[in-house]
Amino acid sequence: MVHKRLEYETNLYxxxxxxxxxxxxxxxxxxxAKEALEKPAGDQVLVLNSVLQPIVDEIYKQYPKxxxxxxxxxxxxxxxxxxxFSSDNLISKPHDRPYFKVYETGKPMLxxxxxxxxxxxVLSYTNPIYDKxxxxxxxxxxxxxxxxxxxxxxxxxxxxxTLGVLLLLIIVLMLRTTFNKLSKEINDxxxxxxSEKIEAEGNLLPELQPIFLKIKEYITxxxxxxxxxxxxxxxxYRLKLEEDLASSNQRNVNILKNMGEAxxxxxxxxxxxxxxxxxxxxxxxxxxxxxxxxxxxxxxxxIEQRAYLEFHNAVAQSLPIVFExxxxxxxxxxxxxxxxxxxxxxxxxKDITQRKEEEEQKVEYERExxxxxxxxxxxxxxxxxxxxxxxxxxxxxxxxQLLGEKPEYDSQRSRFELMIIxxxxxxxxxxxxxxxxxxxxxxxxxxxxFYRLARxxxxxxxxxxxxxxxxxxxxxxxxQISRNYSKLYKK
Length: 491
Fold this sequence. Notes:
Helices cover about 60% and strands about 15% of the residues. The chain is of the alpha+beta class. The strands form two sheets. A five-stranded antiparallel β-sheet has the order 2-1-5-4-3. A five-stranded antiparallel β-sheet has the order 7-6-10-9-8, with helices on both faces. A hairpin with a 2-residue loop joins strand 9 and strand 10. Helix 11 (about 355-405) runs antiparallel to helix 12 (about 415-425), helix 11 (about 355-405) packs antiparallel against helix 14 and helix 15 packs antiparallel against helix 16. It starts with a helix and ends with a helix.
């Protein structure tokens, strides 16, 4: 069918070529020769038709199933036409027809249009006509009725189908004739093929033995193809796994790049392979600057850092290591988590500067709380000591006053008064103070002053109560208690 259509199109090209080759003079030369150059347009059309129509008629006799003719764009009329020639058909054509584009392109073109001569769609080949100056002055055309072309194609297909059906019927009859004869041999052949027994080949008809061998060869090839298909399936599956792995790796790269924890990778030569955004923020460096460079170039003094030793320990031991150290890049405290890998080292960073400051503040706070608790204990101890001493001394002092007022103890009154003075001052046989006759405050006033000193923030150890009692036993004045208490605190 395609071949038939190409044949029709070829005929159109031939007709167009014949129309062009038979036009030996330009339209203007023809009019000049006929002395009709100054005549009206209608007369010029008739003059040109008298010359061109015989050309068209002659070619039409060779190709009676095709339409053809000449057209002048200057006169805007058909100059010659077939089939159904009539002077009434020497008329103008609408310029919106597709084939009028040859005046714009200057190239021949094949179009599908409706023909007035045929009264039906046609396949038209249009060829521009040039004058001596190279200006397009008209065109020639050749067309074929599409209905006739399709009918011819249908007839051709029908003939081919008819021939094919006849051949098929002949083949079916031949096969039916030979089927019964070959039934047994085919069954034997099928049995031999299914059994795949080599000895079965000798039991077949000589005519079927080559077929049997071909089938065996085919089965062998099929098995090989099955193996190849299996290999192809495995390869396809492996390629899919690689694509999935590549996709997964890309997702992992995106996760590492955008995760909130700083992360970088060093290869076995201590060069940066990866540096995510959070690592850029903590280090104040960019990945463009670090990638491909050695850590020794980025941090020249790394050998002085603790991270240098820990990185080497992780590589040597092939074990993950977690430690806290100063940042390699800026002034901050970081938590390093180092994981050895076949590539080198994977290092995760976390800024713990604020956390460490909070921990130190917490320790200082707890220390202050403990110190305040000790102060409170000292105050309670001092109050208890003062209370325990004041009560018995008050009782003794009262008895001494009562005894001094009785007549039978007049001889001892001076001693009673001395004892009362000793109790009031807390003074114990200090000969130097006796000679100076110092006016001493009361012993209980010293205890109160000592308690206030303890409340101001002076601390004691776990033997503070014993030391306090020893000092109270050997001190007299409040100033002496304060000085000795200060020495005790410094120790």
